[in-house]
Design a protein that fits this description.
Layout (H helix, E strand, L loop, with lengths): L7 E10 L4 E3 H5 L6 H8 L3 E3 L7 H16 L8 E5 L10 H9 L5 E5 L5 H14 L5 E9 L9 H4 L4 E11 L3 E9 L7 E2 L11 H6 L5 E2 L1 H23 L8 E4 L4 H10 L11 H4 L6 H11 L8 E8 L3 E8 L5
Parallel strand pairs: 4-5, 4-6, 11-12
Antiparallel strand pairs: 1-7, 2-3, 6-7, 8-13, 9-10, 12-13
Helix pairs in contact: 3-4, 8-9
The structure holds acetyl coenzyme *A.
The site of acetyl coenzyme *A (ACO) has 23 residues, from α2, α6 and α8.
Length: about 325
């Protein structure tokens, strides 16, 4: 039972959705001055999925949410909370979670979005765990969803090769069994300018000048984010392991945010994790931001890589700067 938690909380369903359109490294070679070899060796990414002009974040989020509900055998009317973690909402307001609620017809659910970059799914899971554990809510749908391709400058090779679109969802419910063992969130707003989308908000409202300056695109200090990511993934993992009274060797599957294979390998090495303890799918999807951990978790469960009793360590980092880590003892569906 985690600190301050009155009831146990388990994940009873997972789902994910990605666009059908594939953009390979070879496609990108034709768009910017890059190469498959550079992208593969520097990031581990081979291809990514990219949404078409008719698809927005709420469309992928609703599809992932629908699959998680189906997996759990829960109907939309039974939901009382929907949290969507995203940095690419359909619009500044209303929240993307309200659009998901409309799409799912989950009329009994309270809805909000949260912005924690690629840590978003873990932030959402943590909020849902405490909301359910307190007894205030019974069933929460947490979705990490982003269409980063919509805010990428496809002439900027330092960012456009890294990201893909997608959504990953988890359905959480109260239970007698173990479930979520420990969870930690953190943030350091001093790193706000390491990864940002400058324009279109109240600081710099969208205008011809912000458009001309390219402030509707992601900006990133790649090297700073890289160093922060390796350090914080290790620190947050060790903290949450200590909270749960576990050692790295007790972890059956480590699901890190999928940003760069070199970040994942450095963190895994420092945590003394073996290759078969680490889940990697960024070769297929690139960095899908708030969706990445949810997509990986759903794939791992559906492929049998996670079984009942397994201990799973999730860890993410992202814009803010933010981070989050969570350990779950997986409960098999009855
Ligand atoms: N193709 C070819 N060359 C490139 C490319 C490219 N796509 N991008 C950069 N280069 C060049 C650079 O111009 C530079 O050339 P120079 O030496 O002549 O100046 C050279 O490659 C090396 O550039 P670096 O930036 O030092 O490359 P690095 O090995 O650090 O990799 C990368 C860059 C992949 C961005 C890495 O720093 C990284 O992964 N950082 C973390 C990013 C991240 O995780 N962001 C997501 C955070 S999560 C969220 O909240 C959304």
């Amino acid at each position: 039972m985690i600190h301050g938690k009155a009831r146990n909380v388990i994940i009873t369903g997972t789902g994910h959705a990605v666009p059908t359109r594939v953009l390979s490294n070879f496609d990108l070679e034709k768009m910017v001055d890059t190469s498959d070899e550079w992208i593969r060796t520097r990031t581990g990414i081979l291809r990514r999925r990219v949404a078409d002009e008719h698809t927005a974040t709420s469309d992928l989020a609703a599809e992932a949410g629908r699959l998680a509900l189906k997996d759990a055998g829960v109907s939309p009317e039974e939901l009382d909370l929907i949290i969507v973690a995203t940095i690419t909402p359909d619009m500044l307001f209303p929240s993307t979670s309200c659009l998901v609620q409309k799409n799912l017809e989950a009329w009994g659910a309270a809805c909000y979005d949260l912005s924690a970059g690629c840590s978003g799914l873990i932030y959402g899971l943590d909020m849902a765990v405490h909301s359910i554990a307190s007894g205030a809510y019974q069933r929460a749908l947490v979705i990490g969803a982003d269409c980063i391709s919509k805010v990428l400058n496809f002439q900027d090779r330092s960012t456009c090769v890294l990201f893909g679109d997608g959504a990953g969802a988890c359905l959480l419910e109260a239970a007698d069994q173990a479930g979520v063992l420990a969870s930690r969130l953190g943030a350091d707003g001093r790193g706000w300018d390491k990864l940002l989308l400058r324009g279109g908000g109240s600081r710099h409202p969208a205008s011809p000048a912000t458009l001309a300056a390219g402030w509707h695109y992601i900006e990133m200090c790649g090297n700073d984010v890289f160093k922060f990511a390796v350090r914080i993934m290790v620190e947050a993992s060790l903290q949450v392991l200590a909270d749960a009274g576990l050692q790295p060797e007790d972890i059956d599957l480590f699901i890190p945010h999928q940003a760069n294979i070199r970040i994942i390998e450095s963190a895994a090495q420092r945590l003394n994790l073996t290759e078969d303890q680490v889940y990697v799918n960024l070769d297929e999807y690139g960095n899908t931001s708030a969706a990445s951990i949810g997509i990986a978790l759903d794939e791992a469960v559906r492929s049998g890589r996670i079984k009942g009793g397994d201990r799973v360590l999730l860890v993410g980092f992202g814009a803010g700067l933010t981070w989050g880590a969570m350990i779950i003892e997986w409960v098999e569906k009855a």
